[in-house]
């Protein structure tokens, strides 16, 4: 999408101020509807919600590919976000139910994690090739054959679960509150660059995005059929995994954005060369999450693999933080990014395994939606904060070369990202140690060690 933005701007007549909404029109409904979609998966059946989401996403992709003005494209992007939320929210819950055996589940979560992490790298290359060889319309139209194949596969292999049924109820007022809260929160974040942190716009919408979650929490404590039962947070493992996820994703989303800027603006790589430069991190994630991480999780347990992955990610960011303005890709960027790919390939499947382990069977869709919501909101927040910190640091420097000023901003952002990963490591060590969650919530079997830890 990002690679195609200049072509979309020129073709449809977007102004510089509203071009960002081609991205934001997807991000806001995607982040805002994940929780509701996860709950609907529990009620109506996860396969039904998954297929319905794919259908909406596919039709919206067709509309986006045929868009003839900015308004049609933004409407199509909004529908894409809604369909994407429905499919994504229930996906993790289905993975957990389809693969109940620890070894098979570890492999499945590794594949799932790779699919998420490698998408941006693959998309940056594919988007450039499609836009250059055909037109920007094909970055949307390519979704049609892919979705048809995926839909046929889903009909064939996914369990046709019936769900709890509509009588179990859904808290629609709670859904409206949490969706509005997330939408206003994401809106505030993505508009910070235009208005500034101290502007009335940012403060006003930021305050609203804080008041609405509080109202949502009150509603959940009183509703007969709450959208997000507060009891789910009694699981120390699930709560700790979501907090760890938020800190980790905040650092990684910001890193991916800023390292691309460093390659383009400081090292002078072109768009296609930059996309290719991100391939090694995707390859590292693929190898580790698909082959190595499942075996390590089966042998040593998700908890230990998670801690090891966080240490490697933090080390990679600390290695990258003092990157030189007059350096090179092979000497300054390749090593740290591959290290972070290895760490991410270890950490993400293990983190999802730890978090979903404590979710009750009837709550897997809800827990899946909560995980995905955490990823999207934390990613947007982390990206905005790190980008603003880098820009502020760069703008404060005078009398130096542009490349040096930009690099100084990236230094600050990368060190802050390193701190976020260190905080994630601390949270994981304190809250996700095997048996701790169960002992704190009074669950039976509290003293049973992690499912994959070797018995001594």
From TrEMBL:
Its main location: membrane. This is Putative transmembrane efflux protein. PROSITE patterns: MFS. It is found in: Cell membrane. It comes from Amycolatopsis methanolica 239. The lineage of its organism: Bacteria, Bacillati, Actinomycetota, Actinomycetes, Pseudonocardiales. GO terms for cellular component: plasma membrane. Residues 1-436 form the Major facilitator superfamily (MFS) profile domain. Pfam families: MFS_1. GO terms for molecular function: transmembrane transporter activity. It is a multi-pass membrane protein. The chain crosses the membrane at residues 19-37, 49-68, 74-96, 108-130, 136-158, 170-190, 196-218, 239-263, 269-291, 303-321, 333-354, 366-392, 412-432. InterPro entries: MFS, MFS_dom, MFS_trans_sf. It comes from the Bacteria. Keywords: Cell membrane, Membrane, Transmembrane, Transmembrane helix, Transport.
